[in-house]
Amino acid sequence: MATIDGRPAMYGVTLKQLRELMEHRGREGVAKLEDFGGVQDICRKLYTSATEGLSGSENDLEHRRETFGSNTIPPKPPKTFLQLIWEALQDVTLIILEIAALVSLGLSFYQPPDEEEVVHPGDEEGHHGWIEGLAILISVIVVVIVTAFNDYTKERQFRGLQSQIEGEHKFSVIRGGEVKQIFVGDIVVGDICQVKYGDLLPADGVVIQSNDLKVDESSLTGESDHVKKGDKSDPMLLSGTHVMEGSGKMLVTAVGVNSQAGIIFTLLGAAVDEQEAEAKKRKKGEEKAAIENRSTAAAKSEPVEEVVVAKETDDSHKKEKSVLQAKLTKLAIQIGYAGSTIAVLTVVLLVIQFCVQTFIIEGKTWKNSYANQLVKHLIIGVTVLVVAVPEGLPLAVTLSLAYSVKKMMKDNNLVRHLDACETMGNATAICSDKTGTLTTNRMTVVQSYICEKLCKTTPKYSDYPEPVMNLLVQAIAINSAYTSQIMCTEPGELPKQVGNKTECALLGFVQAVGKSYQGIRDAQTEESFTRVYTFNSVRKSMSTVVPRPDGGYRLFTKGASEIVMKKCAFIHGRDGCLEKFTREMQDRLVRTVIEPMACDGLRTISIAYRDFVPGKAEINQVHCDNEPNWDDEENIVNNLTCLCIVGIEDPVRPEVPEAIRKCQRAGITVRMVTGDNINTARSISMKCGIVKPGDDFLIIEGKEFNRRIRDSHGEVQQHLIDKVWPKLRVLARSSPTDKYTLVKGIIDSKISESREVVAVTGDGTNDGPALKKADVGFAMGIAGTDVAKEASDIILTDDNFSSIVKAVMWGRNVYDSIAKFLQFQLTVNVVAVIVAFIGACAVQDSPLKAVQMLWVNLIMDTLASLALATEMPTSDLLLRKPYGRTKPLISRTMMKNILGQGIYQLIVIFTLLFFGDKLLDIESGRGLPDGVPGEHFTIIFNTFVMMTLFNEINARKIHGQRNVFSGIFTNPIFYSIWVATMVSQVLIVQFGGVAFSCKKLTLEQWLWCLFFGVGTLIWGQVVTTVPTRTIPKIFSCA
């Protein structure tokens, strides 16, 4: 018989049986599990151990993947390059150009029979008529390929980003008796996983052991109630669901496409393929959204239609458009209208002039060859439209965002939603957590109060009564998640804290007094626990019930000191003797111990216990013959005996005060929202610089906050919130609901002139609603739960507040990059369109030919967007206030630059058009037959491109700075593209010939073109000198 690592290769249960098992819920699931012989029997059939897990040998894991599948769901294949080219070809203006070019090409080869005129020797139209049509086609192909290439790289970046987000996801499993963090994709059937509050379950499984485990299955079933999980109630845990409370262990029974979420994915994928044709008629991306929504229907029997509908309704709650998107959409529409109008006028004028000239003045009759002339006029009109419409805008936005997102990775910002990056630049308020974000999240016990002795150093075990210290060490070791551990590292380094940092501080305290917490845990395994009341934001404490060696039960509790103390009736006094813990003593303890600790910025934790005994009970014990009703938490966790109070220090991160100063200088208000008590919160906020001594700001607790913002019926009222939030700086002892209420209140407020843009940090499962509601939600990459990460827009991979400041810088930089590009592009648009239009009126021909305009369009759209969208941010960005939602995208300074440069370029071009032939002593290009390139119009084209190129350098600054060259060498993409464009222009003019309607220029003519080009830089300094306030406000737009 075949064996793998000494065990049989055949499992005692098949993939099909396991899949069927996972389709049952609740009581049905319990019964079905019993049919299989219970969870221990399934462990045996899968050759795994509930306590030791799998051996972890590579052969065994590989065999399991082959038999039961791997824990990955294959993504939808990306679009191919050809598909992207086809999509780029769908652009309406490009289609009109293609058709017109083909018609022009066809007509140039067509010699109608009635055409018997003599061809003039100088008229090269007959020989070269086809070149222009072909050149336009080639230009269109170049534009399409560049667009497709950009989309392709963008899609690849997104996929890379997505896989990075998914790749970051690790999970705790037991292998070879040790707890290990492994990537979710490496989990196999038979693994024993440790699940805890906040986890997103990565596979289907069966509960082995549960401590108060509650799961939110709404993503699969639509039911919003949390489902209690346990071997007696409902043992099935499903992938894609969120653990909302408690902890436990599960045996993995189905992974990847065989898990419940995977089955739905496969169904959805198949349904999408079938409906592909219909889906195209609907909004693009709906089916994609349905697939991407990892969490959807209940069992596989559910119809797929319902799944998609559920997703659609879910999408209606998405955030509104980002600030920049809204402004750009408005601007693109405005430019589109103007461009279309001028394009139509240009065509109409050219056609009327041609008809009047040919048929009325010259009195000729219609010939078929004239159709070619009319097509040429149409091409010029369409080209004007192509130049006028800034199709480079979306490209610039995408490029700038994608570039920023890539760079932000290095600054510890993992961006999940692209527009969050840009929205962050407009942030006016940041609501930040304290622990781990403003502080280091490396906690240590620095003060303790045991047996009426306050100790500000590490106490000695022998200084206190043995029974009390023994109880205290047990209380800390047992009543904390067994995933919290202190790992030994290299000599000289600090020990590594794994798991909950507050618990790690307490475990460190046990080690500091010379005891081992691991020995106690080995003797009292998690399986032996009678009941666990896990920590949550309502309890603010955690309790564990274990059996006593001599019968009965012992309850250990730890939590926020003032909350646990209210439940204490006894305390160990001097020499460990028991005393009644009266209200007076409690108040005195708060005044003399807890408040001074909190004022030092310490987090205070109380540890207590209670005994339930079968025989004679002492004064602080409870007599019970039968097992108490553990569901009656109110009475169980009461009349406790206080063991000690500890003060835990979590120092402020050294870089945070400076980061907060930068925020305040940049016009961003930082507020701290924390669950700690008000004195600790006040102390930390002072150290950070959120509040300064003598400031008239509010520091209040959640209770007081709720009292102020609710009316007599307990309803939250916006006008009451508006009285609180402007001055609020610290909200202490707050619940996640308070955080959500505050964020919503600030966003919905109408009292400031433009709506506030709020960023929020969160790490807990219950922070989900606040993170979703905020304009930008930051989840903690280290301390954050999977639920918080799912709800966020950006993940802070180092949990550090100063990384948020970098996100603000990048956000503002994106906004400025787009503005730079706009300033540059609109100048070119205005000049090219006016030149084409007036040229059509005055010279019956556009001085800039269709191919030339397409080349200019390529420079300004694609290449300039690449060059200007990739500027690096500078610290100057944090010296100004946020733009806000209502400030025009094109400021008055930018409009001054656009108009100023536009006027200069138009004067130069029209001077060259009407007087250039005399000034430069060359043959006039006006009235030359079509298709004959002359020096005159070549100089006009070349000068226009030179002015455009030098104006690109001007466009690098949009706030009226004089030095347009500063930092130019920090952006290699900019100067590489600039030089490449310049070289291409030289080649086009000197060797482009008929294809580009160009004639070779002499050195002197080149110097004139360069002189006019460099003139834009000098003229730029003149424009900068003009005061901005002379420009009427009406000129700022979008």
UniProtKB/TrEMBL annotation:
Instruction: Tell me the PROSITE patterns matching this sequence.
Output: ATPASE_E1_E2
Regions that span the bilayer:
92-110, 130-149, 335-360, 380-403, 821-842, 898-916, 936-953, 973-993, 1005-1026
List the GO biological process terms: regulation of cytosolic calcium ion concentration
Catalysis: reaction(s): Ca(2+)(in) + ATP + H2O = Ca(2+)(out) + ADP + phosphate + H(+)
**Membrane topology qualifier:** Multi-pass membrane protein
List the GO terms this entry assigns under cellular component, sorted alphabetically: plasma membrane
The keyword Ligase is annotated on this UniProt entry: no
* Domain Cation-transporting P-type ATPase N-terminal, residue spans: 35-109
What subcellular locations does the record give?
Cell membrane; Membrane
Which SMART domains does the entry link to? Cation_ATPase_N
- List, alphabetically, the CDD domains matched: P-type_ATPase_Ca_PMCA-like
Top-rank EC class of the record's enzyme:
translocase
Q: What Gene3D superfamilies does its record include? A: Calcium-transporting ATPase, cytoplasmic domain N, Calcium-transporting ATPase, cytoplasmic transduction domain A, Calcium-transporting ATPase, transmembrane domain, HAD superfamily/HAD-like
Q: What is its EC number?
A: 7.2.2.10
What this protein is reported to do is described as: Catalyzes the hydrolysis of ATP coupled with the transport of calcium.
Similarity section: Belongs to the cation transport ATPase (P-type) (TC 3.A.3) family. Type IIB subfamily.
PANTHER family, A to Z? CALCIUM-TRANSPORTING ATPASE, CATION TRANSPORTING ATPASE
Recorded protein name is: Calcium-transporting ATPase
